[in-house]
Design brief:
This protein is an alpha/beta fold. It is 38% helix and 21% strand. The chain has 16 helices and 18 strands. The two termini are 37 Å apart.
């Protein structure tokens, strides 16, 4: 791994990207046994990529406390301690996401004992983000890179690309920003914010915002489609006796309609057709606000940020609210979303920051107009 402290603004990414060989190619060349750490959707996607590249799976394991003698994808799930006792030098492929300090520190410690890869597989959509993908979208990536507002954003952007190709988590460690850095240096919330929270979950980002405004705000609109999460959100609002807050159990979209929705009982409930899908109301920000101004809009809507941005296009053009937009669900988010924001409001200054998370989840776009 090599990372430039502050890469030059005018250089092309074709010169700055040093990772040319994907983690899949490296794993294909491995002679040591390869074990997948984790189960679920991430492991299934990684195993699909293994099959495509002809990478053999030696086994699957989980943290000792989670092993109950079960199996996954035809493999008995082992304990990590069993693997370490039986295999001299295993290669480990992480197949789950980690977003809190204790777990991230645990994974970092594991990476010092064993060769560890963290493959980047899209949360939504298909394909793999490798060097060839970067070269196919070089024009868009360079356009975003050169339009970023500060040196740190360019450093983060480059490191996230290098991580996505290599699966080397050190690229993320090198650019992980603190919550203070984002709120105090970029978003700079005031006591009079009119805040729109798309993907409000259980109120966690509302709580975060209020921490930086001393519990003050003008109005809040909170959108959360998942029924269980929405109940938690309503309980948070009621428990804190909050006023001037509007809660909506619906999806954020580019127009008012109904969409098939599949609940996953967690943060990642998604718009998708399937056995458990049911029709869900979908609203766009412009009609939700009814012409009222917004000063800050957060969007973390599980891969449908593009549609949510179009649904807020009038609000963005007329009121130029600060934006905080997740840009990690789809491979193309890293260039499509910044370019769309600039198209909707050329006056925006664009910033990119990565908050504590492995893999590159919580890589977010921030847009601020003077």
């Amino acid at each position: 791994m090599s990372a430039t402290k502050y890469p030059p603004k005018d250089a092309g990414l074709e010169r700055l990207i040093t990772e040319r060989r994907s983690c899949w190619e490296r794993l294909k060349a491995e002679q040591r046994p390869i074990f997948i750490y984790g189960m679920g959707d991430g492991a299934a996607k990684i195993m699909s990529a293994f099959e495509r590249f002809g990478i053999p799976v030696a086994g699957i394991f989980a943290s000792d406390a989670f092993v109950r003698g079960h199996s996954f994808a035809g493999f008995r799930v082992h304990k990590l301690s069993e693997i370490e006792e039986q295999v001299e030098d295993p290669v480990i492929v992480l197949a789950f996401a980690a977003g809190y300090p204790e777990l991230v520190d645990y994974i970092r410690a594991l990476s010092k004992r064993h060769t560890l890869y963290v493959p980047d597989v899209p949360v939504i959509g298909g394909g793999l983000f490798d060097y060839q993908y970067c070269m196919a979208h070089l024009q868009e990536l360079n356009e975003v890179y050169r339009s970023l507002a500060d040196d740190e954003s360019r450093r983060v952007y480059l490191n996230v690309i290098q991580f996505k190709i290599s699966g080397d988590m050190r690229y993320l460690d090198d650019v992980t920003a603190s919550t203070d850095d984002i709120y105090k240096k970029i978003l700079r919330p005031t006591r009079g914010e009119s805040y729109v929270d798309l993907g409000a979950y259980n109120g966690d980002t509302i709580r975060e915002l209020l921490h930086y405004t001393g519990q003050h705000y003008s109005r809040i609109w909170a959108v959360e489609p998942d029924k269980k999460n929405h109940k938690k959100l309503a309980a948070f609002v009621e428990g804190n006796a909050m006023h001037r807050i509007h809660l909506y159990q619906c999806a954020a979209w580019c127009k008012d309609t109904e969409l098939p929705f599949s609940a996953k009982s967690g943060r990642q409930s998604v718009l998708a057709a399937g056995e458990n899908a049911e029709l869900m109301p979908a609203r766009c920000v412009d009609t939700l606000l009814g012409g009222a101004p917004a000063s800050l809009i957060k969007m973390d809507v599980e891969g449908y940020e593009r549609e949510a941005l179009w649904g807020a296009s009038r609000t963005i053009a007329h009121h130029r609210p600060k934006l905080a937009v997740a840009m990690y669900h789809r491979n193309e988010d890293i260039f499509e979303l910044p370019l769309l924001v600039k198209r909707l409001c050329p006056a925006y200054k664009l910033y990119v920051r990565h908050r504590l998370y492995i893999p590159a989840w919580e890589t977010n776009l921030y847009a601020v107009a003077d």
